[in-house]
Design a protein that fits this description.
Helix 1 (12-23) runs antiparallel to helix 2. A hairpin with a 2-residue loop joins strand 2 (26-30) and strand 3. This protein is an alpha+beta fold. A four-stranded antiparallel β-sheet has the order 2-3-1-4, covered by helices on one side. It is built from two helices and four strands.
């Protein structure tokens, strides 16, 4: 499945780590928005890795699944 991940990270060092991590799984659409194609197991790994990188009180990461219907 394809996911869009957008973030707002307060600290420059944490923001760079999050961006580098996401670049290893997908590609950047905009400055703080990435597109990733992941299976369920890999999504769980990405979530775990991102959770370890951020400060829950200062940062936010949104993960949106892209549902493609028939046009």
């Amino acid at each position: 499945m394809i996911y869009i991940i957008a973030y707002d990270i307060a600290d420059n060092k944490r923001r760079l780590r999050v961006a580098k991590t996401l670049e290893s799984w997908g590609y950047r659409i905009q400055e703080s928005v990435f597109q990733l194609r992941l299976d369920a197991a890999t999504l769980a790994r990405v979530r775990s890795r991102l959770a370890a990188l951020i400060s829950e009180g200062d940062d936010v990461i949104h993960i949106y699944p892209m549902c493609w219907g028939v046009w």
